[in-house]
Specification:
Distance between the termini: 34 Å
Structural class: mainly alpha
CATH class of the largest domain: Mainly Alpha
Helix content: over 70%
Order of helices and strands: HHHHHHHHHHHH
Strand content: under 5%
Number of helices: 12
Number of strands: 0
Amino acid sequence: MLSLVHRTIASLAGRLATLALVLAGLWALWEGYRALWERAGWTKPFPVDSTTMPHLHDIVRRLFEPIREGEPLLARYMLDAALFTAQEAATGFAIGATIGFLLGAAIARFDVLQRGVMPYIVASQTIPILAVAPIVVVGLGNVSIGGWVPKDWMRVAVIAAYLTFFPVTVNTVRGLRSADPAAVELMESYAASEWAVFWKLRVPAAMPFLFSAFKVAATASVVGAVIGELPSSIQSGLGGWIINFNQYYVLEPENLWAVNLVAALLGISFFLVVVGVERLVVRRPPEQLT
């Protein structure tokens, strides 16, 4: 028992040390690049100064300072905004992942859909998200279902779902078709129904592929939520803060970089949640699952 505890502590200490080294390396790269470009006077690919590349410690310190005297710390506002954006992203991720899985399952089952539907799914991702977001968010605001109008954050969740469903759809098709044909024939020889083959063989075989898609979709859902907030004038999320701080970027560039840092941390947290669930669900490599 003690040896297990010791191994767990050692593993955790190793992970924390690795994280500290990575963060230190990123800080050194940022500050080294900044110092070298300033000292040499280089202007390519862009001039480096306190506006274009603030010191990382100034960005972090800004989070623990009030926006104005007598007001809460910026970090408090960022926490509330991150939770609001997380609600939109999580809803969009759930919707997009569900639609992607169902669509991928249908395409994997019917070959005609592979040829008839998949090209349009791929084409849908070639449309710039910045062009789609205003149409969807503003357009859904004019939709009334029995007198009920979707709330702002619900409309933003649709944009998050839009970026989520594509990787899930593609990997669902790959995963469901990755099951060993011999195993499929064996189950069919025992008169297993197509539904039983699907849930007991094809879905387990697809799990590694699905979670690979979920990792991409989780971070994409955060990006979709932030972008979706921009045309909707939602001030409660990170997108609203980005618009506000962008107007005063020249005066206080650290504020905008601080929001970007919080948005990045939110995307990383979504990714880590998926990784944690994957470790609980997927315990064997794909070749053993099939």
